[in-house]
Structure of Alpha/beta hydrolase:
Amino acid sequence: MNLSSNTQKWLDTSLYPFENKYIQLDAGKMHYIDEGKGDVILFIHGTPAWSFLYREYVSSLSEQYRCIAIDHIGFGLSEKPDDFDGRPESHSNNLNSFIEELNLTAITLVVHDFGGPIGLGTAIQNNNKIKKIILFNSWLWETKNNFKSQKIDKIVNSKIGSFLYLKMNFSPKFLFKKGIYDKKKMSKKVHKQYIYPFPDKASRQSLLNIGKSLVGSSNWYQLQWNLLDKLESKPWLILWGTKDEFITTEYLQKWKERLPNAVIKEFNCGHFLQEEKAKETITEIKEFMKKDS
């Protein structure tokens, strides 16, 4: 079903020139883009992003591949229902339904940030449908014993945290910019496309919910980590921003130990490589896609 006529007026189609598609899931109406033909590359974003994060990847890679990028329920152009709990495990269930509905197979899965546990959690359940995995800065293990995560968790679950997230739109306005190392790479025009999807308090609940899940879903992350052997034999490409202040190179080291055969490329940039190092990482993805599984 295509509801592009209903697309928000703020959307800059010069930056995001794609046909908007929607699918009805149990949790709500999910927006996605589906461009090109060939082997499937499925892009999964984290917070406070949406499929806009992967716009340059879809534009370039759709010349050779079928590129699909979703917006999680509560994000981007997807529905923002009041009754959706917004936990990563629930987003993962939605992704599972999405893959089933579109009958996707031989998927190259691309994940980042919270999209890591969300996407990999789904991939573990659908390991026979996964061909390759591309990982940007992310994690897949317990967070409750991590000092930085504990600090963030206290703030997010406080009254001031609720105020910042729901009243001030803190996540896309301020935290997103903090994830950019070279500020020149983030124009006001582009930054607005991350702010506009969350115009009021009700629309920002998804940001608060997933923030609370950083530690709140700790046990679920660890469960997925324990099951990662179902995906370890797949070809992995890890693209890592070494100037990320939160998901640091310590996280990368843990991935290296668990996935010794992964192809790893490090970049002098922050959390959002998709904004700072799009061309360079697209080149790496093209090389990775050419290799036989």
Notes: The first helix runs from residue 55 to 61.
